[in-house]
Specification:
By secondary structure, the protein is of the alpha+beta class. It folds into two domains: 83 residues, no CATH class; 104 residues, 2-Layer Sandwich (Phosphorylase Kinase, domain 1), CATH 3.30.200. Helix content is 26%, strand content 29%. The chain is built from five helices and ten strands, in the order H-E-H-E-E-E-E-E-H-E-E-H-H-E-E. A five-stranded antiparallel β-sheet has the order 4-5-6-8-7, with helices on one face. A three-stranded antiparallel β-sheet has the order 1-2-3. The C terminus is likely disordered.
Length: 230
């Protein structure tokens, strides 16, 4: 999604325009009871790698990667717990940093897990100018997207999104499936950037592992990890 936001409808050259800088991963530790709940298996199988220790299995599902996309620094971090705590839901935070402000897309407890967009000035003195700039931008967008407004808060601006423009997860997924089926029925409709950007996506996700991270000494690969296939 970073590519879509920064360079919409544009093909990314994964060999020349993507540079993975570093990556790391860490586990979510599962008890036997949690493993049983997910898999329906009575015990940990002997084929699990790494083997369970102390009655718990470390599932390496959490990752972070830093990379350059056409010279723009990007950091991605994804964390999975076994289950959300009572009363909590999935959270998300996307931040775009500029020279005078940052744009934040947030889905967290502060907004009752409702996705909201904020614009935050880097300097308090720029607040008024930023407010005017956001108003101009929303006015320009009104040709295609009507009803957007801006609300001034203590230290930031909130983009007010009408209810009719909000899509739930399932509704959005239905739109994605519909578009996919259109491409299956008529491959000529597939955008020219789709294939190269898919390659760029997988260059990032495969090169972003710790063993593929380049350092001053070359490529590090822990001895206990299997050698990744090309």
């Amino acid at each position: 999604m970073v590519s879509w936001v920064l360079f919409p409808d544009t093909a990314i050259d994964d060999e020349r325009e993507v540079q993975v800088l570093r990556g790391r991963r860490w586990p979510t530790s599962l008890s036997l009871a949690e493993y049983q709940r997910v898999t329906g298996q009575a015990s940990f199988p002997g084929t699990l790698q790494p083997p369970p220790v102390g009655g718990r299995f470390d599932y390496y599902c959490n990752n972070a990667v830093d990379y350059l996309l056409r010279g723009v620094h990007v950091r991605l971090e994804t964390t999975w717990e076994f289950a959300a705590a009572p009363g909590r839901k999935d959270t998300e935070r996307v931040v775009f940093r500029g020279s005078r402000a940052r744009v934040e897309v947030r889905q967290d407890p502060e907004d009752q897990y409702r996705r909201e967009v904020y614009v935050v000035p880097n300097e308090t003195a720029d607040a008024a100018a930023l407010h005017a700039a956001v108003q101009r931008r929303l006015a320009a967008l009104s040709v295609e997207i009507s009803g957007l407004a801006v609300e001034r808060q203590t230290s930031r601006l909130r983009v007010v999104i009408p209810e009719r423009l909000r899509l739930g997860h399932e509704e959005h997924f239905a739109h994605v499936v519909q578009r996919f089926l259109e491409y299956v029925r008529n491959p000529r409709l597939l955008p020219a950037w789709e294939k190269p950007n898919l390659l760029a996506k997988y260059r990032i996700t495969t090169r972003g592992w710790p063993w593929r991270t380049r350092t001053g000494c070359g490529v590090e690969r822990p001895s206990h990890e299997p050698t990744p296939r090309p």
